[in-house]
Specification:
The protein is α+β, with helices and mostly antiparallel strands. Helices cover 18% and strands 27% of the residues. The chain has 3 helices and 10 strands; from the N terminus they run αααββββββββββ. Strands 2-7-3-1-10 form a 5-stranded mixed beta sheet, with no helix packed on it. Strands 4, 5, 6, 8 and 9 form a 5-stranded antiparallel beta sheet that branches. The chain is globular and about 45 Å long. The two termini are 46 Å apart. The N terminus is likely disordered.
Length: 191
């Protein structure tokens, strides 16, 4: 029994004093095994919390998302024109001929917001406007069609999607003179 106590103390010192791992019994003493089995319960760990969060149900998916279901960790996508088979849109934000795209949010109940950027006098920093210039609460079948301006020089807009469970992603719409605008852009969803 003294050897077992010494081994347990040594293990706790080597594993770190801040953690309290469940003691492991490596003896054939039936009394010790019975005490171990009935005496303690393991406290929840971060790994257990993460696995239970992954088991929580996802918000209801937009029916228009079905063709894009391969993108499992996304809040939505932007299909930039030209698009071979464009989806039917339900909402129009800004009309125009150039730099247009289809915003397809994944979850019903999400908000899609377009904020104007407010630049400092020396154009070194920007902030988002207090209120979005355009905002849509996503219903089933929602697809937003809009000009998504990406002027050369200083960007002017920030696009975001916020899911019903409060997770969000967005980015500044920027001109890419090297590669051009990507045909598809993604909003990440990290459950």
């Amino acid at each position: 029994m003294k050897k077992l106590s010494f081994i347990l103390i040594l293990c706790m010192l080597l594993c770190g004093c801040g953690k309290s791992p469940a003691p492991t019994v490596t003896t054939e003493d039936p009394d010790a095994l019975q005490t171990e089995a009935s005496g303690t319960q393991e406290a929840p760990t971060a790994d257990m919390a993460n696995s239970s969060a992954q088991l929580s149900p996802l918000p209801e998916e937009n029916s228009v998302w079905a063709p894009y279901s391969e993108y499992e960790n996304m809040l939505g996508i932007v299909l930039n024109e030209p698009v071979e088979n464009p989806p039917r849109y339900t909402t129009v934000w800004m009309e125009g001929e150039f730099e247009c795209g289809y915003i397809i949010p994944r979850f019903v109940g999400s908000y899609v917001n377009l904020y104007q950027l407010e630049w400092s006098e020396d154009f070194s920093t920007y902030t988002l406007a207090d209120e979005p210039s355009y905002s849509t609460l996503v219903g089933d079948g929602c697809v937003i069609y809009s000009v998504l301006p990406r002027p050369e020089g200083f960007p002017t807009w920030y696009l975001e999607i916020i899911s019903p469970d409060g997770k969000g992603d967005g980015w500044v719409l920027q001109y890419d003179g090297r590669d051009g605008t990507a045909p598809i852009e993604f909003f990440e969803y990290l459950p």
